[in-house]
Amino acid sequence: MSHRRKGVMMVVGILTEKPSAARHFAAALGGMNGTYNGEQFVIAHARGHLYEFVDPHRMVGDPDVAGKYRTWDLGNLPWDPQQLDWSLEVIKNASSVAQDVKRTLGKCDEIVIATDVDPTGEGGMIAVNAFLELGLKPGKWSRMYFSDEAPASLQKAFAARKAIPSLLDFDEYRKARYRSQFDLLSMQFTRIATNMARQSGQDTVLRQGRLKSAMIKLVGDQLKAYNDYVKKPFFQNRFRDENDVMYTNPEEPRFDQKDQVPNQYGPSPVLLDGKATKQTPPPKLLDLAALSSILVGKGIKAQLVLSTYQSMYEAQVVSYPRTEDKTITPEQFNELAPLVDKIAGVVGVDRKHLTHREPRKTHVKPQGAHGANRPGPKVPSSLDDVEQRFGKAGRLIYETLGKNYLAMIAEDYVYEQQKGHVKDYPDFVGIANVPMSAGWKAVFDPDAGDDTAEGDENESAKGLGTNAEPFVFGGANKRPEHPSMKWLMKQLEKRDVGTGATRTSTYSEVTSTKTKYPLLLEKGRKLILAEAGDMSWRLLPGTRIGDLALTEKVYADMKEIAAGTGPSAEERLAVVADWVREDIATMQKNAATMRSALGLKEEAVTRKERAQGTWVKTGKDVVFAREWGGHRFTDDEVARLLAGETIEFSAKSTTGKAYEVFGELGEGTFKGRKFVGFQKLGFGRRDASGNALPPASWCHYTFTPEEIDRLMAGEGVESSDFVSKKGNRFQCKVFFREEKKGEGKKIVPDFEASLDSPPKSWCGVAFTDDQLAALTAGKTIKGTGFTSNKGKKFDAELQWRNEGGKKKLVPSFG
């Protein structure tokens, strides 16, 4: 039944999170606008987040107070959340998208939040932030809930959308906003740690955060355990039968030396105590963290997994990425059931193994939203097709995800467990697990290629033997596992910290070598601490930010805030100030230990002076180096740069040579990192019209006003009185032009250019007009008092003539 207002059909506006989602909605509902199920609709899309918090100092109304939120001095911490107005601004390059949303949805009677439904509420906050900032005020708000973007799912969600009484009370918005506010306040912990590093003479930035710091703490602690490992050998009597099954007695004494072990046992028959058929179900479905942990061993970085998976999801080749579900729903199982054989054909799994076509209780449960990561409804024609569309990473993602899902359709792994003992020494017991049916192991091995994975030490193809021989077993205490991505993700999963996608994205950030100060480094499958990570790890013991329980608390707070129970978000954020005070004191103590361990001295690193202000080009506050080329910008020059003007000044080269330069404030890139700073537009001076002027002199030769005019006009200027760095005079023609694009105009010598007329002087002697006329006519002139490069006086006859393909002044002597 259609909805009408005074005889006019009401318009339902739908906001999706991304353009790709808008296309899927259009495919499901019949277009970007139209009528579906008797309701008129129109679709708009965001591009992820359109708005973000402004810098903390811009959230403070009192300018006298705002300064403490800008600088990194410890004396300005902690911040008072009540002084922050939590204002937002449109993200760079997102303004046009935001205005498109306003134009499309501005006159709708109902606006539907159709952004991604994720566990953190991020999708809901993306929509609400946009609606509030754009001032949209329809008669009704609602939310669509969907597990994927298949047409049937979107059509069902559109028909069953839920009304939202108030945007500010919307549960997704409330919990996501709280997390964003907390994360902004956690910037203080980065400033604390960075101060500790700089007080130790290290010019670095130590990024801290709920998940970043937890990762550093876990990896650092595990590395210490791994590196501190001391091997402690032991020797012990054991038995081994002809099938290589070992028999042990837990009470058998251990010895430090092999020759200490008493020779007190002899050969003995083996008695079988019993047999039992056992089975293990398929491994659980993968999340993005587990998937990335497998692929990192195949050379695929976490960031590439994230970006490739997102593209594959948008093409409906795989399921929703940012899920926290470990199982799938019966509906999701039924959706893929008809596609199982086709998926098997793509990933190379023999269909004969896929005989468990009923839902498993371990993998399929009624609870859930998006479901665990799995293949999507659109099955590719082949892995080659996947690779052509999504690259090598896409191929490995689909193959791994497909086989993992198909393992659930295979039977259990079945083995016979045989237990027995040594007849003459019954305390020595052996176990043999004899494979009977490979089941899911024939489809997917999650530990394939991982040499750190532990196999079944009791697995035996032949089972128990009949006779056992005594031997002296040499063993040692087990060394702690070296940290790896797989190990780290398991630790975080044990503590239920974040979703698989959140863990993966944060891991990608802290291991990225594109950042100036990575915290962790990947060495093959292994993880080590980067220099900044090592310092962070030594500062974190006993801190709030380094405690895994902090993230657990934030997620628990989010759930309560979404449900409207317990203290308010403001009350929960207020306690952060106390945590900051505690961490300052704790890190100051830890810094002394850090300096001692790393051989650092307590000293303040000298940092370049910075200028700051609002840049008219972007309307945003910027901070940039106040010095360039040995020149410190005056207050007036800073103001002119921020206003978008071009300035000129005298700078010095690395050798101390002075030169003129002009330029403006702009964006640059250094070692892959973008920054705002002075950008040179050209060398020399400028005239009133802003045109570049040649320098007054070059190579110790001073240009005449007439020569300056010729250079400005693009003409060449000739002289034989140019002096090289070694003090040698030379003759050439020079031009004032741009040698390299973007470098600006400068004096450029052209040694191949033919000189048009005799030079006006040579070796320190200026020619008379008569002498110049004679030279021009090809006559020989006599000159005296010339000075050589070594300062000696000499006489010579000179002629202006062609030599070596160009005209030049040719001397002759005697």
Can you describe this structure?
- The chain has 814 residues and is an alpha+beta fold.
- 32% of the residues lie in helices and 26% in strands.
- The strands form 13 sheets. The chain has a six-stranded mixed β-sheet with strand order 4-5-3-8-9-10, sandwiched between helices.
- A hairpin with a 2-residue loop joins strand 21 (627-628) and strand 22 (631-632).
- Helix 1 (19-29) packs across helix 5 and helix 12 packs across helix 13.
- The longest helix is centred in the middle third of the chain and has 25 residues, at 383-407.
Concise synopsis of the structure shown:
The chain is 32% helix and 26% strand. Helix 1 crosses helix 5 (151-159) and helix 4 crosses helix 6.
Helicity level: 25-40%
Q: How many beta-strand elements?
A: 37
Q: N- to C-terminal separation?
A: 115 Å
Largest sheet: 6 strands, mixed
- Computed over alpha carbons, the radius of gyration is 38 Å
Integer average pLDDT: 90
Our estimate of the beta-strand percent is 25-35%
What would the principal axes of the Cα set say about the shape?
globular
Strands across the major sheet, in which order?
4-5-3-8-9-10
User: What is the count of DSSP helices, taking H or I runs of 4+ residues?
Assistant: 22
User: SS-based structural class?
Assistant: alpha+beta
Task: Catalogue the unreliable spans.
Answer: none
